[in-house]
Specification:
Layout (H helix, E strand, L loop, with lengths): L1 E6 L2 E4 L4 E9 L3 E10 L6 E7 L4 E3 L7 E6 L4 E6 L8 E10 L2 E4 L3 E6 L1
Parallel strand pairs: 2-11
Antiparallel strand pairs: 1-3, 3-8, 4-5, 4-9, 5-6, 7-8, 9-10, 9-11
Length: 116
């Protein structure tokens, strides 16, 4: 069993910044990928960013150039630095981890609200 604990969500004004953290704990042999997805009310969950254990990153088109994902393999932790936030970034942000043997884990979600 793997547990993902998220922190860092909150309320900010447009143009501001937030930093999200997600730490994995439990019995883990290998984590291949960690990342973030988000879901706004009435919308589908969408990719924000992912990072592999080798440091390869991938970003959703709507956040490229504004958000940065980073990982710490030793701490089994992933971070999301969110800059130049827009009201349309308002959503519940979910941490995810993909392990070997193959299995996907999800955090409980943390609310990010950007006011205009």
């Amino acid at each position: 069993q793997v547990q993902l604990v998220e922190s860092g969500g909150g309320l900010v004004q447009a143009g501001g910044s937030l930093r999200l953290s997600c730490a994995a704990s439990g019995t883990i042999l290998t984590i291949n990928v960690m990342g973030w997805y988000r879901q706004a009310p009435g919308k589908q969950r969408e990719l924000v960013a992912t990072i592999t254990s080798g440091g390869v990153t991938n970003y959703g088109d709507s956040v490229k150039g504004r958000f940065t994902i980073a990982g710490d393999n030793a701490k089994k932790t992933v971070y999301l630095q969110m800059n130049s936030l827009k009201p349309e970034d308002t959503a519940v942000y979910y941490c995810t981890a993909a392990t070997m043997p193959p299995y996907d884990y999800w955090g409980q979600g943390t609310q990010v609200t950007v006011s205009s």
